[in-house]
Amino acid sequence: MEKYPRYVTPDHEYFDPVELASETEKIICRNHSRKYTDFYATGVYGGIATGYTVGCCLRCVFCWVDWSRDFPEKYGEFYSAEEAYAYLKATAKKFKVNKLRISGAEPTLCKQHLLRLLELVENSDFNIFILETNGIKFGIDKDYVKQLSRFTKPHIRVGLKAGTPEGFAERTGSLPESYELPYKAIANLLDANVSFHVASMSADGRFMTEK
Ligand code: SF4
């Protein structure tokens, strides 16, 4: 990748999200550690402790993530899976919530970190771990999804950005043909019998046409 893609501009060139995922992982993953900017609790899902991750492989125009998405080298600190779990647990205790999640940018980047974190959650008293993803990594890596099936705690939320190649490219800045990957992620999750649901931008007519 010649130039690391930041936010989408009117004259931008479409990028390959798989390549961007791997370039981003070079910045935000280190062995079993990955970058986070914060740990906090929020009221969604009825109250949940959240680890806010750094770095994504899409550049959605409606994204509300801060600059850590576009400049991952400048933001966040590395946390091992053990450290991230300890912060999530302490946050859950402080705010009296019993669900955990990692969110922010793209939590499925840094596979080793996520799988180790899920092991720690699996052996804990927490009974649900929400994972919010754009589906790029789970679309290209069936084995990754298969590995999730050994855990009982994760529930995956796959965010669909578009239903057509053109719409996907327009909204995410990535190559039109990559629009299939989130749908492949859904197929892989179904095959592996992993708990998930799909969320789409379709309720907002500014971003997705009825078609
Ligand atoms: S996939 Fe999510 S985090 Fe990544 S750019 Fe799109 S909205 Fe932002």
By DSSP (H or I, 4+ residues per run), the number of helices equals 7
Largest sheet: 8 strands, mixed
Number of strands: 8
What does the overall shape look like? Answer: globular
**How many separate domains make up the residues?**
1
Which regions are unreliable across 5 or more consecutive residues at pLDDT < 50?
A: none
The helix/strand class is alpha/beta
Q: Which strand-content bin applies to the residues?
A: 15-25%
CATH homologous superfamily heading: Aldolase class I
Small ligands present: iron/sulfur cluster
CATH architecture verdict: Alpha-Beta Barrel
What is the CATH domain class? Alpha Beta
Order of helices and strands: HEEEEHEHEHHEHHE
The overall average pLDDT, rounded, is: 95
Termini separation: 33 Å
Tell me roughly what share of residues is in helical segments: 25-40%
- CATH topology term: TIM Barrel
> In angstroms, what is the radius of gyration?
16 Å
Account of the protein in words:
Strands 1, 2, 3, 4, 5, 6, 7 and 8 form an 8-stranded mixed sheet that branches. The model has no long low-confidence stretch (mean pLDDT 95). This protein has helices spanning 17-28, 81-94, 111-122, 136-140, 142-148, 165-172, 181-192; strands at 29-30, 33-42, 48-53, 77-80, 100-104, 129-133, 154-160, 196-200. It has 211 residues and is of the alpha/beta class. Helix 2 (81-94) packs across helix 3 (111-122) and helix 5 (142-148) packs across helix 7. It has 7 helices and 8 strands; from the N terminus they run αββββαβαβααβααβ. It starts with 16 loop residues before the first helix and ends in an 11-residue tail after the last strand. The protein has one domain (17-203): TIM Barrel. 33% of the residues lie in helices and 21% in strands. The site of iron/sulfur cluster has 10 residues, from loops. Residues 56, 58-60, 63, 65, 69, 105-106, 134 line the site of iron/sulfur cluster.
